Amino acid sequence: MNNTWAALAAAAAFVWLGMVLAISFLEAPLKFRAPGVTVRIGLGIGRLVFRALNRAEAVLAAVVAVAVAAGGLPAPVVALTVLAVALLVVQLAGVRPVLNRRSDRVLAGEDVPRSRAHLVYIACESVKALTLPALGIAALAV
Q: What pTM, to 2 d.p., does this model score?
């Protein structure tokens, strides 16, 4: 085991956590409370912000995965890494496309019903927000 790789994995996990908390749990719900922000404007902003967040998350997930693999970190760190990355993959490959199709329809002026996909995305974010600090702490404990 290499402490440098463990420190890198922990740092990336904590940066990733900070981004998820700031965007998903602060920016996303607050933007709709700003004066003059309609659902269409909020969706347009949200799509841009979440696209950028998800790209940054993918980079951070890759950094964590490489650090964990290269550092030969113990099984609990590997398991938490797999969970965090799997949650991101579910969001990017499974949930985001559904949400994007729905937001396309809203932005086109359609009146569409609420989507359960949003709840799935929030559930994944919530589990990820619990997994990432555990991952960072486990990596630092190496």
A: 0.94
